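Quick start: what a row looks like.
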Amino acid sequence: MRRELAPLDKKARKLLEPAIAPNERILAGARGLSSAIIATAHRVLICRWGVTSGAFFGSQVNSWEFSHITGIEFRRGVGSAAILIQSRGAQIVTRFGNQDKGPTSVWEAPNALFLLGNDGDKLAAMPRQLVSAYQSGSRFDETQSAPTTRPASLPSESTYMPHPADDLRKYAALRDDGLITEDEYQAKKASILGGRT
């Protein structure tokens, strides 16, 4: 079993493990009501089972590559929290209540789920930031757990020198999203501006 899936329940691990490539890095994950969501460095996956999959004994795993995601929405209501993956061709979800039913409800849409716990906003922040980096032409550096700016058209790291303002904006966004601390941001800022006057 992959250790990154350990916090999820047994059913989620059983469904997700075969759907993830051996070299695919899992960055975040959360349990939902008869469901789970994970974000890797390249895509977001939602698995559902039981009634939430459309069949009492059924199950499903759906995946959205960052290139197809148009938004990631997090909604908190009275006694519930839901996350919705928005993409071209995905089910439009308009009903976010615990008692709502139908194809436009969180209960039935394959691109949405009710989360358990209180970390849904943090979970939504990670794929949002990764999708934003992907769509702006950045790539994900798996050794740093943060996107690094490098236009895809440039052949190598050594031929590209990012503008310091771009790097500062990137790290400020990470800080604002709660993915790095203020101290980490200040350290990066000092290293980026070091030697520049």
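That is the whole record. The CA atoms of residues 175 and 181 lie 6 Å apart. The longest helix spans residues 120-135.
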